[in-house]
Amino acid sequence: MTATARLASVPARTVSPWLVLVLVGLAQFMVVLDATIVNVALPSIQRGLHFSPADLQWVVNAYTLAFGGFLLLGGRAADLFGRRRLFMAGIAVFSVASLLNGLAGSAGMLVAGRALQGLGGALVSPAALSIITTTFADGTARTRALGVWSAIAVGGGAVGLLLGGVLTDLVSWQWVFFVNVPVGAAALALSARYVPESRSSGARRRRLDVGGAAAVTLGLLVLVYAIVNAQSAGWLSAQTLGLVAVSAVLLATFVLVESRHRSPLIRLGILRTRSLVGADLVMLFVAAGMFAMFYFASLYVQGVLGYSPLRAGLAFLPITAGIVSGAGLAQQLIRRAGVRAVAMGGMSLATLGLLLLTRVPVEGSYAADLLPGLLTMAVGLGLTFVPITLIATTNVAGEDAGLASGLLTTAQQVGGALGLATLSTLAADRTSGALGALGHAPLPFERLTALVSGFQLAFLIAGCLIATGVAVLGVLVQRQHVQRIDLAVEPALAA
C-alpha cells in the first residue's frame, strides 16, 4: 500500500463525519468570504491602486469569473484524481494568491492575483461539497450537513462585508487578503490529517478535458467583458455584438467538445437529471441578484450615507444573522412542506427584500431605509440555499458527486459575475443619463441623486432576477423530481 493510500484510509475509519464537515467548511468559508470581503474595501483599493470607476468591478469579477470558469474542471478533477488531493491543492493556490494580492503594487497585479485566487477557489469548492455528499448518506444527516454548508456558503459572503470593514478601517485594505494566509495554512495542515480521500470508480481510465475547460472559461470571460464595456461602446455597437458573437462561438465549441470527448468536463447525459438542471438554473438567477445586492449596498452605505469601512461592515452584520436563521429554519420547514415549497418561499421573500431596497433615498437612514430590505432578503436567501443545494446534489450517482457540486457552484459564480457586470453597466447608464439630462455641471446633491437612481434600478432588476428563479423552479422541478429528498427527511419528522 502506498503512503497516500495509507493516509487516505485512516480518516475514513476513525474520524467523525462532523469533524470532516467542520474542516471543509472552514476552507469553504474562506473561499466564499473572499467573494465579498473586498466590497467594503473597494473605495480604499480604488484610491490606493488608482483604479478607474469602470475598472473597479474587475476586483470582484476577476475572482468570480476565474472561480466560475474553472469550477467544472475542478469538480471533474476531484472525481478523477481524488477529492482531498484537489481540495488541498486549491487551498494552497488560494493562500499563495492571497499573499500576492496583499503585496500587489498596481491595479493589474491585483486583478491577476484575484483571478489566481478564483482558480484556487474553483479547486476547493466542488471538492469540498462532494466530500460532504459522499461522507453523509441521504436523509436527515445529509440535510443537516447541507444546512450548515448553505449557511457557510451564503453567510460567509455576509461576514466578508463585516470583516472587510474591520480590517480596512483598523489596519489597511491589504489585510483583507493577508488574513487568508494563516487560515489557509491551518486548513491545509488539518485536512492532510483528518479529511478522507475518495474518487469516482474507473477514475484511472479517464483524463481531463482541458480543451473544454478552456473554451467555456474564455467564452464566459469574453461575454462578461462585452457587457462591462457596453456602457462606453454601446449595447448595439459592432464591438459589443462582435464580442457576444465570439463568446457564443466559444460556448458552442465547448458543447461540441463535450459531445465528442471520451472524458468530458460535463457528461452531457447528466443534464437529463431534471432536478439538477432546474436547481442550477435557479442558482444562476439567485446569485445574479445576490452578488449585485452586496456590491451596490456596499457602495451606497459608504458613498451616499458616508459610513467608514468599519461602520459599513457593521451595517451588514444583520445579514449574517438573517441568513443563518433562514438556513436553520429551512431544515425544519423542509420536513413539513418539502424542499420545493421552501425554496420558492425563500426566493419570494428575498425578492421582497430587494424591492424594499429600491426605495433607498439620498438622505436616507440605515434603520428605516436599508435594514428592513437587507434583513428580509437575508432570511429569504437562507431559506433558499439549503433546499436548492439538496435538489441539485441528491439525484446523481456517487461517481458524479464532484461534477454535480461543480455545476451548482459554477451556476452561482457565473450568475454572480454576469449579474454584477450587467447591473453595474445598467446602473452606470442610468446615472449618466440622469446627469446628462441636467444640462449643466451637476451639484454634489444632484450627483448623489443620479448615483442613487442607478442603485435603485440595480436593486429592482436584482429582485426581478430572483423572482425569475421562482418561476424556473416551478416549471422545471415538479414534486416527483424531489420525492426522494422529501421521503428521506420524513423519518425525522415522525421521530
Structure description:
With 495 residues, the chain is mostly helical. It is 81% helix and 0% strand. The longest helix has 36 residues, at 401-436. It is globular and about 70 Å long. Residues 1-13 and 491-495 have low confidence and may be disordered.
Class derived from helix and strand content:
mainly alpha
Bulk shape: globular
Rg on CA atoms, Å? 22 Å
- What fraction of residues sit in β-strands? under 5%
Unreliable residue stretches = 1-13, 491-495
- Give the overall pLDDT as a whole number: 81
The figure for the number of domains is: 2
Helix content: over 70%
Termini, distance in Å?
Answer: 44 Å
Order of helices and strands: HHHHHHHHHHHHHHHHHHH
Number of helical segments with 4 or more residues = 19
Biggest beta-sheet profile: none
In the CATH hierarchy, what is the architecture of the largest domain at level 2?
Answer: Up-down Bundle
The first-level CATH class of the largest domain is given as Mainly Alpha
How many beta-strand runs? 0
- The named CATH superfamily of the largest domain: MFS general substrate transporter like domains
What CATH calls the topology of the largest domain is Growth Hormone, Chain: A
